[in-house]
Amino acid sequence: MFNDILNIILKVAEGAFTEITVFVGIALILFGYFNFKNDGNFIKTIQKNKKFQPLIGAFLGLIPGCGGAILIAPLYIKKTVTLGTVVAALIATMGDSSFLLMTKSPKTFILVSIFTFIIGVVSGYIVDYGQFEKRFNLNNHFFNRKKKKNIFKNILCRKQYNFEHIGHKKGDEIDLILHHDIKGHQSVGTIGFKITHKGYVIYFAILIIGLMIGIANLFNFDFGDKNISKIISTIGIIGTFGSIFLMLAGHKYFSEHTHEEEEIRLTSLKETFIHSIIDTAFIGTWVFIAFLLYEMFIYFIGMTDLATGNDIFMQLTESSEYYAIMIGALVGMIPGCGPQIIFVSLYLKGILPIEALIAHSISQDGDALLPLIAMDVKSSLVITIITTIVALIVGYILIII
Fold first, then answer.
1. pTM, to two decimals
2. How does pLDDT run across 94-103, given as a tens digit for each residue?
3. 155 domain residue, yes or no
4. Range of the domain at 385
5. Which of 112, 214, 329, 333 can pair with 391 through a Cys bridge, CB separation 3.0 to 4.6 Å?
6. How many domains in the chain?
7. Cα-based angle 319, 321, 325 (whole degrees, multiple of 5)
8. What are phi and psi of 302, to 5 degrees?
């Protein structure tokens, strides 16, 4: 049994890296550059166009990753954008799990994106015209409440980059919460910082080699030589465990984005690249965890026989569409990208129906809700309830249709 489990771990590690992580990595780098060039412009545009804010917010959420949607939180707190704008952005966003769909199932990615965008826009305008913000008495206390502690206490608590803030100003209450009261970018000079800001070069080199292997596999290229096959397997295994190491060094366990990091990305192309590499390691780790959990579950329910376990599992999932919708929406309520990556990975394994995926995509917010939770728990809770209800309604309607 021990040898079987070890073989499963190594095989999953190889496949996770060469089949998914390498493609996700390239997509992350490309979209990281796109965000570096455009996110600041999007934020300026959304501030100037009040009537079209839910539409622009949904578009920001639609951009793969959490970068667009995560920058909305301080704008809402400062009453620059509406509650419906935040709802639209969070419904439209799929977080970093979008990169999995984009690279492994582009048609599904396009279909889900269309659904989440349209539903996000419609929901956003309903929330605004229905005056949900006033009805639930939201976002009217942030700047009026008295802080029990000196709000400037932690302003020099750690070494930080000098960067331009987006949606707020340096030294204001939002700055102190987003960049000092909660965990943000790694402190300069720490061991983790040195590992991530130097080790990314080595990881990127492995990623490029893995990408060439992944492309060859797509075209069913036969390497023939057993020694070459062993080298390829080794690269895949090193890539996955390198992902885990880099993720741990960056202290990114369940979520990998903070508002502070998004601001840093927009001021430095080098930081954009480094963070894209760290995000790749984060996603690669969770893909590995998802695939490993699946394979181990199949292994044990099949009494150590994978084929038998797979047959049993498929029988269990055939009649569980309605439960899958509910599970997808509930898992989407969990902040962060880790659980969301696992859910999408299971869809890619053919375990879950697309209706559950759409419901999950509507419900989940990736890391985009985390800054808002830190600043306004009540608004975050109401938004989460709204997106979850919308997800359940849409999911069950799709099944009925």
1. 0.79
2. 988 888 899 8
3. no
4. 2-143+162-400
5. 329
6. 1
7. 155
8. -90, 10
